[in-house]
Amino acid sequence: MSDIEASKAAARAWIKRERRAGLGAARPAIALGFAGTVLAIGQAFCAAAVLTGVSFAPALTGFALLAIGRAGLGYAADRMGFAAGAAARRRLRTDILSRLSWARPTLARSRHSAELAAVVVDKIEALDGFFARFIPAATLAAAAPIAVALTVLCVDRTAGLILAAAGLLVPAAMALSGLGAAAAARDQFLAMTRLQTRFLDRIRGIATIVLLGRAAEETAALRRAADELRTRTMKVLRVAFLSSAALDLAAALALILLALRYGQQWRAGTLADPMAALAVLLLVPEFFSPFRAFSAAYQDMFHATAAAEALADVPPMPPAPPVREIRTLETHGVSVQFEDVRLTWDKSRGPALNGLSFRVPAGETVVLAGPSGAGKSSAIELLLGFVRPDSGRVVINGRDIADLVPQALSGLTAWIGQRPVLFSGTIRENILFARPEATPEQFSEALRAARVDSFVEQLPNGLETTIGEGGYGLSGGQAQRIAIARAFLKNAPLLLLDEPTAHLDPATESEVLDGLRRLAAGRTVIMASHSAAARGVTGRRLDIRDGRIQPARGAA
Amino acid sequence: MIADFRRIFGLWRGRALWLGAGIAVSLLALAAGMGLMTVAGAALASLALFAPTLLRGLGVVRVAARYAERMVTHAAMFRALADLRVWLFQRLTINAAGGLGFRQAGDVLARLVNDVEALDGLYLRVLVPVAGAIFVLPLTLILIAPTAPLLALAVAILFVLAAFVLPLSAYGAARDAGTRLSGAMGQLRVAVLDSMTGWREIRAFGAEGRMLAAAQAREAVVLQAQDGLAEATARAGAGAFLCAQAAVFAVLCAAGADTSQTIVAAFLVLAAFETIGGLPRAGAYLGHAAAAARRVLGAADAPVPVADPASPAELPKGTRLGFDSIHFRWRPELPPVFEGLTLDIAPGTRVAILGPSGSGKSTLAALALKIASPQSGQVILGRVDLATLTAADVRSRIGWLSQTTHLFDDTIRANLLLACPTADEAALWTALDAARIGDVVRGLPEGLDTWVGEAGARFSGGQGRRLALARALLSPMPILILDEPCAGLDAETERDFLTTLNEVGGGRTIVLIAHRLTGVEKLDRIHRLSAGKAIAAAA
Questions:
Q1: Is the confidence at residue A322, as pLDDT, over 70?
Q2: In angstroms, what separates the C-alpha of A17 from chain B's closest C-alpha?
Q3: What is the pLDDT at residue A140?
Q4: H or E stretch covering A552
């Protein structure tokens, strides 16, 4: 619960901060909106002048010109609102992507890729209305009615007071009916989002549902969930719509009171200035229209709150580490040393590494063998810089890797995991990913060395074959050969292998191991492996259990 | 476009009463609103005799009707949308189990969900205001035409322009931008998903900057398409505003002859045009909704992979599973998977089917589950050709666990009960223990009521597999096909799991699909798939 409270508080703080920032960006749109109200006031007087016969041609011309001006202002305000929303989305998306690319390793165990992608794509999109509409509308709802009321006050004090009173009724009634309702409506909005998530989840797993023979039950459950949500939502809306009703009531009240007042004066012959009276009546809708715009944009605030909670869950970027780049020469190779390294991912599950120490001299191959959960992958992830040890040191060429800038570290290492991720794009793009500036010679050399060329030749589009979602599906062995080609192309002195053959059948496994042996030549290699696959690799074997090296059984 | 919307409205026929009531109340609110403005004008011009009473009455009706309108239209919309979701879900259970779901086209499905959401506004933003416009136009003309026929004509032209012509042209402009937008959005989603799934590669190759730049480039395309939409919307909005102003201008031009009448007309015209202010924007929205409707209906109309027979045979008692000279390919342009596959699995036996990837092991499961049907040859359950049975009947006999088996974002208990809703607590624990995950679940503070997260995200890959396995073991099906059940498990857990599997038979047929054996499996028979045929090997 306290987690949820903390995330809500963080979201509130985020909204407050962004609202202040957004206000600066929204200033032109607000100015245009305000200018629109000023022109509308002018128009009301022009129309009143024509209708009461005070002036015809000049007032008519004025009316037309002001109308064109207002259309232009409205158009410009729309466009500026869009620009503000687009700029905010661009900024926030870059920010969240950078934060995620930093925090991804710590989130890897708790958050699904699709969920994070939804934050980056959908939640940021949902913020558009907040910046494009809500922020300008919130300011205009305060400023524009005041301008109208002041004008009316100048021509007819009583009318001005009536309008002001009706205007004050709006926030008062909104607060009265809306205070509790706003919180409830927000929760309801989140419940609605959850129903949509549930629907998505059920659709994703539709094959599982059908094959378990539960289609009818799940359909009924979906119907029940939707019905229940509707009943609860309508209960909330019943109250929430009262604030809209208050707005309608205030508008109707002001119009009726003013119409009756002027009608009476007219009949009694005491109406001093019919033109002003008519202008005041025409201004009543203008007085309330900013309130309406605000209440229409209010839902954008809920969207923003939901998005803010998701964004607040992603940790901020850490300060850059002090830059103390080490000097390494690829030709001299890289030595690696773990010194009493301890690491705990999750306190409830105990330490992953519990005093791990070992040394790999340059150019040597070491196999870390042991069951899953022994700490093999954690050791590799430390070397990749995905995590920092809780205590102890990881040392490369005599320097603590904590002192390295990430770029220097990634320049030293090549990594192949259990299932390489192939990005959507062509096979060529996927291999060049390792080193975009590679020459054609280096590229085809990597293809040959990894034996990618042999299977690519058989594809109709060769290297230009599109892979990834909706594209050609490569087998596990082919994907792994692409990963090996990437590593060849990168030509880094330290090679990290994390169970690279775990998902392959024996024939494919031996092919891949063959490629890995060629790749290992002349490099420092650390390979994590459960026992069976390790046999295919020549090198020193270290048994790792419960986060530390087991003493060797007999001579190695 | 029209046909798509007509079908969606057709799905809502059952809610016609609610939807109609919403429109009726909204028209009442409109009438009261226009009356209020007009009488206010008349009161000023001292034309209305009973102005105070009339105004008060109209004011009350206006406020009450607006409130009722909001309540009724929202209640109607929620009902209609729920109907649409349930309908789509039902259709997908019929045609997507083998298509979308079996091969996990996650992006297509995700889009579908957004598309249903995009249909939200169809009723509130399009149907209700259009009904309002159709109602307001004649009302306005009846009130103006008797005294100023020419003015009425001008107002009518401007009204039609603002209420119908501009929204349609906004729809036209938005349709192209909308199509471009949904394409660009898909590209952005793919780029972001790539950087979220491929983060290890990205970190290892120091490609953060490049991936960010790629995402930004895709985002720029999205923003450009949205800019086009916003431009169309803003233009339509400005156009509608100018129409309204032109109408008032026309009224003003007619002033002079009869001031009082003109004042009333001015208020009337203002009120009339206010009701249609949102329509041009709705036109732009419609461009987006049309594409969404097309995709939703397209998914719902996808062909059923294997149609059920018109008069299905009775489900046999026997559980022998046989494949008799099967020839099969997924699509005509793809190479054949089976060329004369013959294979017999006796009831209650444990069988392994081995073969390298691509040899058709999973296709075998698809054929047995009626997700696909062979081009020639027969799949036999008991003594009956599968083609004569309904898919639901077949699936009540054959359970399936694959790598794409989905864990739902729900509790462990709910996930397990999906396989057997009547199972008691003890049965759940037996299944969990058999899948070697019982101890892990016991160690969780919330036990069986622990939330598993999206696609089991709160558990490691291996643990998630074991939960799915527990569910498969819990299902009462006499035949269980386990498609690579140990993928992602480490050697020790795999061994443990296969050892338990040796014990869980209970007279069930177990078909183990794998690319290799570990040696601990107790099997009655091993079949190797090769060159589209099965070669039996002794156990």
A1: no
A2: 24
A3: 93
A4: none
Q: Collapsing DSSP states into helix, strand and coil, what is residue A517?
A: helix
CB atoms within 10 A of CB B182: 20
Residue at B307 is within a domain? no
Q: Which residues contact A418 (CB under 8 A, 6 or more apart)?
A: A498, A499, A500, A502, A503
Residues B185 and B119 in one domain: yes
Same domain membership, residue B236 and residue B169: yes
**Nearest-angstrom CA–CA distance, A47 and B247:** 12
Provide, rounded to the nearest whole percent, the portion of chain A with pLDDT above 70. Answer: 86
In a domain, B311, yes or no: no
- Asked if B180 and B146 touch (Cβ cutoff 8 Å), the reply is no
Indicate the helix (H) or strand (E) that contains B391.
helix B391-395
- Write out chain B residues lying below 8 Å of A411, CB-based: 206
Q: B206 and A410 in contact (C-beta within 8 Å)? A: yes
Query: In this structure, is residue B85 part of a structural domain?
Result: yes
Which strands sit side by side in the sheet containing B398-401, from one edge to the other? Answer: B398-401, B479-483, B509-514, B350-354, B525-530, B533-538
pLDDT at A348 over 80: no
Tell me the count of A-B CB pairs closer than 8 A.
Answer: 381
Please, what are the domains in chain A?
Answer: 2-156+273-312 (no CATH), 330-549 (3.40.50.300)
Q: Is B309 part of a structural domain of the chain?
A: no
Work out how many domains chain B is built from and give that number: 2
Answer for the pair A397, B165: CB distance below 8 angstroms, yes or no. no
Residue A321's pLDDT band (cuts 50, 70, 90): low
Residues B377, B265, single domain; the answer is no
> Are B234 and B378 part of one and the same domain?
no
Does residue B512 share a domain with residue B404?
A: yes
Give me the pLDDT at residue B138, please. Answer: 93
In terms of average pLDDT, the best of A470-479, A533-542, B103-112 is A533-542
Contact B320, B345 (CB under 8 A): yes
Query: Which segments in chain B show pLDDT lower than 50?
Result: 99-105
Per-residue pLDDT of B209-226, as tens digits, reads 888 999 999 999 999 999
CA distance B48 to A279: 19
CA distances from A373 to A350, B3, B489 (A): 11, 57, 11
Domain range enclosing B57: 2-300
Task: Specify whether B236 is located in the same domain as B352.
Answer: no
Kindly report the nearest CA distance between residue B487 and chain A, in angstroms.
Answer: 7
A:188-217 residues touching chain B, CB 8 A cutoff? 196-215, 217
Distance CA B249, CA B242 (A): 10
Tell me if A94 sits within 8 A of A120, measured CB to CB: no
Q: What distance in Å separates residue A534's CA from the closest CA in chain B?
A: 12
Question: Which element (helix H / strand E) includes A55?
Answer: none
pLDDT score, position B104? 40
Residues B257 and B402 in one domain: no
More confident residue, B537 or A8: A8
Return the CATH number at B355.
Answer: 3.40.50.300
Domain match, B54 and B108 both: yes
Which pLDDT belongs to residue B489? 65
Q: Is there a contact between B452 and B409 (Cβ–Cβ < 8 Å)?
A: yes
Taking the C-alpha atoms of residue B226 and residue B233, their distance in angstroms, rounded to an integer, is 10
